[in-house]
Structure formats: structure tokens, C-alpha cells
Structure prediction request, 336 residues.
Amino acid sequence: MHYPDLPLPDEGNWTVVAPGVYWVRMPLPFELDHINLYLLEDSNGWYIVDTGLGTSKTKALWDQIIGRLEKPVVGVVVTHLHPDHIGLAGWLTEKYRVPLYISQLEYFMARSLVAGRNGASSLPDKIYFERAGLPPEHIEMLTSGGKGFGSVVTPVPVAYQRLRQGSCLSINGNTWKVMIGRGHSPEHACLYCEKLNVLISGDHILPSITPNIGVYSTEPEGNTLKDYLDTLPVFAELPPDTLVLPAHKQPFIGIQQRVSELINHHHEQLRCLLEACEIPSCVMSLLPVLFKRELNVRTQMFAIAECMSHLNYLLAEGKLTRSVGEDNKYYYKSRV
Prediction:
């Protein structure tokens, strides 16, 4: 696995990574401080692949970039529903009067998250965090109102064009095949062009860091890690010299090695959890098994979700038992 010698694009600029494929970067106000976005050149215009957060800073950078392109925007493709990917999809499609391309589950999940609770109770969220063993003050902080998703995502369009497993986008004589990955999000769309030997992997496959595979309060009994491990191997069947364009970090070559590393990483995490659960353990007590760094409240939320995805996988495999203690926390115990 190695990284091609490609210059990092400056804010408001781009780097050409393949014929008609441009790489741009937008800032993020997180520990992971950037997202990679891509432009695909067609004969009559440009397709934008992922958009960045719905902030004034990102809007200004898109205005700067698009103002320097010699052809108009003709479509917006979104790999999945997370705010750094779909944040400006509504703004861009409305401004340039172009279609949104996205998979069905990602589209409707995004619409529901932007709409918010609509009066529904936050009780399922509170139970989820209580079962994990989160302190009451942190539960209150994470469930007490706020715009959340909708604060950094512009209104999602009321119409879309569906991306399906195996469907194709024809752009400038190149065929971009949709490859669906699950686990990090419900129906994440990656794009592979055989002619250019390029895969736009979004968050499904990242170099040097692992995508968050989480179980959240919306589906607390989900088995997202199984979804992820089931949809990873097909990517290892791509040519070994495929240029992978991820949403974070740098483009790389060596997809077969990276897929193997990701699978091995999760199986090692499962092994460590099984060992730790030789004595009954709650989620909060298990976080240090998976995460060696200090966690703040925000990162703790994602860590809980990641830990739950591994525990649910082991429960489904029959390798753990789960009980509810007198303190209303889940306790997990190894069967082996």
C-alpha cells in the first residue's frame, strides 16, 4: 500500500488525480479537520461528488472553485448521509438547478434526520445511553434539544435520482459503477471507473484510519459490523493498482491490503472484547479496550456506538450473553 505523489489541494483549489477527476478539500471543525471531495468532468459540465458541511465557509469555497471552472455544475452525487458529505447538497442542487444522485436508504434517512423528532419523545435516546452506562449529566447534554444534524445540513431536496448496487453513471464517456457498502451508513455508494482504474470510496474504505462502524439509538439492536464485514470483501476483487480516492486522508494504492487490514482490525477488536468480558462488563467500562486515547463527550458518543456494534456482532454470533443490571446498564459476559 502506498500514496501517489499528489500535492494536497489548497483551500479553493484542486489537484488533478486522473483525466477529468479533480480532488478538492474542505475544512471540518473536528479533530479530523478536512474532507476530500471530487469533481468529475463531463462533456457539458461537472458532477460534484460529496459537498462538505452546510456552512458559510464551505459555500464561499465552492463559489470560488465553481467560479473558476469553465463549465457549469450538472449534478451532485452524495455517497452517504453524514453531514460532511450531504451538508450542501440541497444548496448546490437548488442554486444550479441540477439533480441529486444518492441511494434510497441514505436519502430517506437524511430527510428524516433533517426533519428532527417532530414532537416524538427522546426516551429511546436516553434509554440507549443509560444502557451503555453513560453518566446522567452526559445523557442530558446529548439529548437536550439543539438542531443537531439540521444545523450543518441545508434542506435536502424533495426529489432525487437513485443510486443502486451495480447501476452506472456515464460521465464523459466513462462508466462509473455504483458499489454499495454498508455498516458505516445504511447504503453507502462508492463509485468505480474501470477505464480510469479509480474508486471513489467515500468513508467506506479509508487509509490509516478506520471508518466509524456504529450502532445508534435509532436501531439499537442493529448488526452494522456484520453489514460492514459482509460488504468489504468485494472491494478486494478490484485491480491491485486501483487508485482509491477516500473522503479523508490521502488517495492511495493498495486496496486489497487495506481491505485485509480493516477486516483483521475488527476481528482483533472482537477478540479483545471477548477477553475483557470474561467478567460482566458494561459498555462504558469496555471503551478503554477499544480506544486508548482520552475521549470527550462528543467522541465518547461515537465510541459507544462503535463498541455497541462489536458487542451486537458477538451477541448475534452467540459468543456473549447480555443482561440488565439493577442500575439499568447492560452487562456483557463471554460464553467462552
